[in-house]
Amino acid sequence: MGTTVRGRVGAGLLAWVGGLAVVAATAHPEGCPTITADEAMASAQAGIDWIAENQAADGRFLYRYDRDDGEVLPGYNYVRHAGTLLALEQAAAVGLDNATPAAERATAFAIDELTELDGDRWAFTADTGGTGLLVAALVEHRRATGSTASDPLLRGLGRFLAGTVTERGAVVALWDLEADEPVAGSRSPFFTGEILWALARLHAEFPDEGWDEPARRISAYLATERDDTERRLPPVSDHWGAYGWDEISAWPAELTDDELAYAERQAGLFGLQVRYESQRRASGLVALTRGPFALTAGVGTLGEGLGGIHRLAERDPDLDVDREDVADRLACVAGILVERQTQSDDPRLDGAWFRQGITQVDDQQHAISALLAATAVLEDP
Q1: This model's pTM is above 0.90
Q2: Over 60: is that where the pLDDT of 18 sits?
Q3: If you count Cβ atoms within 10 Å of the first and of the last residue's Cβ in the chain, which end, N or C, has fewer?
């Protein structure tokens, strides 16, 4: 998600947090549709089909579409391209149709767009998080297929990412690719977690190459300093961080007390935001008091975050969260997503998620990833 457009999700999440203080004081019933694991998979498949059906021959995705005007809106974002590739690889790993060929086209596009830097380093875009998500996607493919063809590229991308991490563990958000130097002071509420997860995945794949050191540096900074240092108020609900801590715990490695405490706070934040979203309605008085539905991308990130926390809780008994409550909130996200998905004979509409007539590819990306995560807590019919 680039700096000019990624605020779309961030602003929506922060707006939710600002209104959460009134939840306890105002009695609004929740609306969490009950769905099965099969229904979640079918919804994810429909989202994959939308992506594949509308993908260009060069591997680009249909980035933004206005259903009311029937127009493809201008613009493209490389970070969201990498994030959508990740969702495709996650879907391919569980056998969803059309995911693999769409991922192959998207990967070819990304490789064509890489910038080679000194020291055998590779960057996908000046927005450093895009390289992080590309690494995450390539590792997903490596694990699902056993192919090591991308290993030299993964290491080159990793060398670039390691260079974006400061001594304190902060992450540079923008890199001047022509000058090959960081843009001083640039930070992102999401790139920190993205690069943490990428480096953690690299350590899991190549455990003797030192990728754990910058990953743990980021993790410590994220847990103890990031929100204060980077003035994240209200706090960020960091689904990428949840992916990262889940990855670290699977190395295996023990999370520190600070990291566990931060993950516990994140679990509470995810759950509270889901509760608030579940109380929204399309019309009536509640539509006035709770506001319009959130962006699907934002709802999906809550499911991804809860999925990471759920996996972490299964693995680490020291994480002090209510597992049943985490599972319930994750199932609620899945139900909301299935209920709000579009069904249509029009391939530009069918399987997509719209808000106020607009869909963006990250709506499909985050919804698909959340639905796949939720299958772990949903019952079969």
Answers
A1: yes
A2: no
A3: C
